[in-house]
Specification:
mainly alpha; Trypsin Inhibitor V, Chain A; two-stranded antiparallel sheet; 5 helices
């Protein structure tokens, strides 16, 4: 399977929350490295290892972690990102609420729970909707 530019963009897309989390993680990582260096420099010198021995070991661990992150792992692509054709609402009659929600999510729909409806789903099973549309699911608490 050939990788396209769109596939690469999708894999590396980050929303604003993910970018903020990345910045916070980088700041904590930098703080941790400085802390490790300041706490272990004297210990390393006392063992005749050089003051930055533990600092470089920590950097090697960070590099290994980043390398592991860059390995392409299998993942499910969002249906909404790849296929925007209308699809049928699945028939979830008789399924427990959790399994029904999973089936609707897997079909590409968003789900809200409602206790004030007669049908298992609104719109009814078989209705064609765009991916990402909201389907109301009957939930009896």
């Amino acid at each position: 399977m050939a990788t396209t530019v769109a596939d690469v963009r999708y894999r590396w897309y980050m929303g604003p929350e993910a970018r903020l989390l990345l910045v916070i993680t980088a700041c904590l990582l930098a703080f941790g490295i400085v802390t490790v260096f300041s706490a272990s420099a004297i210990l390393a010198q006392s063992k005749n290892l050089g003051s930055s021995y533990f600092f470089f070991r920590q950097l090697i661990g960070i590099a290994a972690g980043l390398a592991a992150r860059l390995i392409k792992l299998p993942h499910e692509r969002s249906l909404r990102a790849t296929d925007t054709r209308p699809r049928a609402v699945p028939d979830i009659t008789g399924l427990p609420t959790r399994n029904a929600v999973r089936a609707l999510h897997k079909a590409g729909f968003r789900v809200t729970l409602s206790s004030a409806q007669a049908l298992p789903t609104v719109p009814a099973a078989g209705t064609l909707l765009q991916p990402g549309s909201i389907v109301k699911l009957r939930h009896i608490p």
